[in-house]
Amino acid sequence: MIALLSPAKTLDFERALPPLDVSAPHFAEEARSLAKSAANLTQKRLADLMHISPRLAKLNAERFRDFADLPERPALFAFAGDVYTGFEALSLDNAGIAFAQDHVRMLSGLYGLLRPLDAIRPYRLEMGARWAPRPKRLTDWWGDRIAALLLAQLADEGSNIVLNLASQEYFAAVAGRLAGVRVIDVEFREPGPDGPRFVSFNAKRARGMMARWLCEHHVADVDAMRGFDSDGYRFDADGSDGDRWRFSRI
Predict the structure, then answer these.
(1) 82 located within any domain
(2) Is residue 48 part of a domain?
(3) Distance separating the N- and C-terminal Cα atoms of the chain
(4) Structural domain includes residue 161
(5) Most exposed among 105, 138, 200, 203, judged by the fewest C-beta atoms under 10 Å?
(6) What is the DSSP string of the chain?
(7) Sign of the C-alpha dihedral computed for residues 143, 146, 149 and 152 taken in this order
(8) What is the domain range of residue 100?
(9) For residues 82 and 8, is the Cβ–Cβ distance under 8 A?
């Protein structure tokens, strides 16, 4: 199977990394083209587009302007949001990282589809952005390209199964374009006064923990993923339905 994750807005290009065999993003040229187009946006336009502060707008305007000269880092180690806090890539052994390279993918507004060791430059461009060089939405600009690459990688991997741990915003880039693929949607719930409830922060961390659990245990059979038990989560059979799986914290 291939597990899909969303990227993160928070980045880490500072911490020392172990020696890694870095790979090149499939859509590196597309990323350069998008960054070049985004460099024409004013700081105010970026602030309005991304709903960010003037300080962050200035930072990202500079990133797009200087994109070709920015440092690179493997995507799994560059993203540092809640999902990647849950994944804890720096403590995963080499065999786990190698397994992730084959079985984990990250959807990206700028890079399309990333393997964990694909080298990326610092950026911020959400998949749901109502901007693109030609169409009005980024998902329209990407069209079928991300799904086509994912389908090819699924064919190479052999399972034809996607474990969807991405947000709705990012999965929209491939939704409805994966004909013949079994997609398992995973949700996470916490105890609440009125029953299991969704808590965004915890769910994001849990998505990363599940992806790590996949890589730690080198899981080949998707049904074995029901055994995920990190941080008190358990498969909730009563709350699950077909290929919509729920995991609740006990």
Answers:
(1) yes
(2) no
(3) 27
(4) yes
(5) 200
(6) -EEEE---SSB---S-------B--TTHHHHHHHHHHHTTS-HHHHHHHHT--HHHHHHHHHHHHTGGGS--EEHHHHB-SHHHHHH-GGGS-HHHHHHHHHHEEEEETTTEEE-TTBEE------TT-S--SSSSSHHHHHTTHHHHHHHHHHHHHS--EEEE-S-HHHHTTTTT--TT-EEEEEEEEB--TTS-B--HHHHHHHHHHHHHHHHHTT--SGGGGGG--GGGEEE-TTT-BTTEEEEEE-
(7) negative
(8) 2-28+72-249
(9) yes
**Token pair of 96, please?**
């786990």
Q: 155, exposed or middle or buried, with CB in 10 Å at 0-12, 13-18, 19+? A: exposed
* Under-50 pLDDT residues of the chain: none
Give the global pTM: 0.95
State how far the Cα of 201 lies from the Cα of 189, in Å rounded to an integer.
Answer: 11
Joined tokens for residue 249: 């914290």
> What value, to the nearest 5°, has the Cα angle with vertex 224 and ends 222 and 230?
110
Question: C-alpha 161: how far from its chain's center?
Answer: 17
Establish if 59 belongs to a structural domain: no
Give the up-direction half-sphere exposure of residue 169: CA atoms within 13 A in the CB hemisphere: 13
Model pLDDT for residues 37-78, shown as the tens digit of each residue: 999 999 999 999 999 999 999 999 999 999 999 999 999 999
